[in-house]
Amino acid sequence: MTKNVLESLQVIFRDVLDSPELMLNPETAASDVPGWDSLAHLSLVDAVETEFQVKFALGELQKLRNVGDMIELISQKQS
Amino acid sequence: MLFSSPVFVYIFLPVVVVVFFALDRVGGHTISKSWLLVASATFYGWWNPIYLSLLIASVLVNWFVSSAIRAQNENGEAARAKWLFLLGLAFNLGLLGFFKYADFFISNVNTVAGSNFVLLHLVLPLGISFFTLQQVAYLVDVYEGLAKEHAFLNYALFVSFFPQLIAGPIVHHAEMMPQFARGEQGRAIPENMSRGVFVFIVGLFKKLVIADSLSSIVVAGFDQAESLNMLAAWVASLAFSFQIYFDFSGYTDMATGAALMLNIRLPLNFNSPYRALTLINFWDRWHITLSVFINTYVYTPILRSFKRITLRNAMVATLLAMLISGLWHGAAWTFVAWGGLHGLGLVVCHLWRKQKRRMPSILAWLITFNFVNIANVVFRAQTAQDAGKVIGGMFGFNGVMLPTSLADMLSGLSRAGVEFGTVLTDVSAGPGTVFALGLLLAIIAFARNSIELMDGFRPRYLTLAGAVVLLLSSLYKIGANSEFLYFDF
Amino acid sequence: MTYKGWLRAVLSIFFGTLMALILFNLFVDPYDFFRIGPWKGSGLTNERLWKIEYLDSHRGEFDLFYFGSSTASQVYPETIESLIPGSSVYNLGVAAGDPWDYQRMLTYLLENGQTPRRVVLQLDVTAIWRYGENSEVYKRFGPRVTGSSAAGFYGGYLLRFHLRGTRDKLGHRLLGWRAGQHESYDRSQGIYYFVHQEELIEADHEAFLDDYGVRNNRLAREAHGMSILEQSLSSISSFVSLASSRGIEVTVILSPPNLSLMNKIAFEDYIALVRGLTAIHPFWDFGGYNTVTLDDHLYYDHGHFRPSIGQAIAARVFGGDTTDISKDFGVLINQQTIDARVERLVAEFEWADSVFGQGTGGGFDPLSAYQGSELSPAGL
């Protein structure tokens, strides 16, 4: 499950951030990825919401600044 | 009650801290927390007891509405929850709008329509901008099912906890209510206590000795002078930029220190903002808790309300969010203009970033700092004319004057229109002031900030001597009346 | 060093400093708030505090209150008492007093058992540019008048560092500096004497005038606009109507500023002041350029006049012998006479502008110049 989520996220991230070589792992944080700024963040969130059919609350968005937390929250919402 | 007033430093804070730990030992957490609530109400009502009822009403209404929303959410009544949420939002914004913006609105209507409605002249309830934002965030998160904690005592304390009640930091329920819910804060911890005392003293010094000493220059330059020559205008603008930083961050230090004495950690609010190399980074370092709030609860909803997230839409959202932030700072067009300036600056900064071109750090710093400094002029000026006077002076529109002592050496410049005379009389300053401003700039640029000092604090003779020197010089200044700049907000 | 040890050291120094400060201020008592130590009664005192305290313990003993700033201190109650037989007068002059102070004091006194039959309000021209609460601790009202807490007032006094008051008092007591004029207070009348200045005048009057900057006729008029004057006039108006509503007779006096102060006043400000006062109540105008205000020998400085002028004012206002007083000193102004008075003031200001506008040489005597002009009252 987690592995699938991570793979899907990698596709989304490569697409939104326009960097085909990008490799994600659960420890990856916003500060590690060039271009993952406040602007790209909302585009990422938007794409993730569409892909996984989930909706994030406003108060959750600040906490999604690393891949591990994102995976956890997605799994939580899908279950 | 002001943090820098004798009654707070000499009586209120020591009594609150001692009684809190004594009560916790004797009566338990509920009793000691109730004491903090009583202390906070006293602190708030000290200034204007009438508005204490407003604070209490705001806390009660928000708590009941959010409890009702929670109940409807749990029953799956999404529509009812939404209505309650909108009601709660309207209550908060209505309260803030009435007390803070009614006169601004009326006077604008009068100007535009030529009407003659009477102004209400309401006294702005202390801290209403701050406690309204905190409760709006709570309401949103309850509605979206995020706020877990809802015990009344913890909620009331999260809103009204005296260290952050009247001028921030703007705290978030998710970081405060769990701290109040945990029991272990009821025991005095020497490490927290000494760190708290230390950073409180640093803040007291920043406020009383540094910021207040700059205020006469600022008042003379902004409010009294007819016109300013170039050097005087720069001295006035820099003096204000330093004043507001040392004043506001000093206040935050005192809040952080007072809270830490009670084993509560307040969020970071200032992180050496004047060292920022980009405007985006400046807002990650200046009044951080406000930036986070604006980003989460203003900018994001605006951007998400557009159909697509594009660069253009994001820039529009940025500009709107900064205009709203400007208006939040004060009910006047100068504040809106200040927010607009920063919004435009952020847009330019984002567009530059897309270019992926590098800029030398020193140039980036110079551009960022001077932009912030000039925007601060608009923030401080009471009228557009005053802002024009200072900014015009900075660009040399009112002439350039150099000290008479340089007249012999640089006499050739007089042909270029440079005058010689007593340069800084319009800002009631002298050469010592220029030296002091240079020293402050060096401190801002190179010294560790107070939170770094607090985190690195160890009980040593050096920190002891430093704390005593700062404390005694602050005690000397404490008698003079002073108010925090951010009290009007 | 442990955290506990560090904390103990800082807190000991903090509370130790506070205790030391409190004891020091109690003992030295820089502004004579408590008057309990061995050094009571010297240095600068807080008149707003102790005059009210004195009157509260002598309720109903006085039937005439003489309000004013420190310039009123040289109009002695005994002079007025000799002119109004059977009266009992108290001088309520306070340092840097302004209409805000007078309104507040009168309100307090009437609410607290005082029953004057007459009040005199001696105003200064500084009402044009000074109004509102003084921030210096020795010029503040005590808690009785403000209704604030006594603990806050006295606590604030004890916990502050009073550099100026401490320096003056210790200098006087330990180093033999001369005392301020407040040394010579007569609390039962509310007045003090300029002992030191009179000694200097006695020794060499001309040297005194030069050393104390009395002799200064430089023209430096500065307009202050109406905003502060309007507040002053509003307080004066409240003062007058409050007294009148209690059936108390009101006398308003505009005190005579020395030439050096007259030359700093903008013409339009002065006219606004006298017209504003006329609209409220008839008043005695001792100001302008006249035989007294142009004579530096009658002044201690630009605002404080000597006792002989106090006697002249009292004689003029309370019906004493005025044969020796110049006719141009003290005119009663009311709705009927104001226009003539303004006409006269126009001439006085024009004369002063022409005489002092170019600057005068040393040894110039403004009084003789005035007496040689057509402004000079006949029969002098």
Structural notes for this entry:
- The complex is a heterotrimer of chains A (about 80), B (about 500) and C (about 375).
- Helices cover about 60% and strands about 0% of the residues of chain A.
- Chain A has helices at about 1-15, 40-50, 60, 65-79.
- In chain A, helix 1 packs across helix 2 and helix 1 (about 1-15) crosses helix 4 (about 65-80).
- By secondary structure, chain B is mainly alpha-helical.
- Chain B has two domains: about 5-180, no CATH class; about 205-290 and about 350-489, no CATH class.
- Chain B is built from 19 helices and two strands.
- Chain B has a two-stranded parallel ribbon with strand order 1-2.
- The longest helix of chain B has about 35 residues, at about 80-115.
- The model of chain C has no long low-confidence stretch (mean pLDDT about 90).
- Chain C has a six-stranded mixed β-sheet, with helices on both faces.
- Chain C has a single domain, classed as Rossmann fold, CATH 3.40.50.
- Chain C starts with a helix and ends in a 9-residue tail after the last helix.
- Chain C has helices spanning about 5-30, 45-55, 75-85, 100-110, 145, 150-160, 165-175, 195-205, 205-210, 225-245, 260, 265-280, 305-315, 340-355, 365-370, and strands at about 65-70, 90-95, 120-125, 250-255, 285, 330-335.
- Chain C is globular and about 85 Å long.
- Chain C contains 15 helices and six strands.
- Chains in contact: A-B, B-C.
- The interface of B and C includes residues 193, 194, 201 and 463 of B.
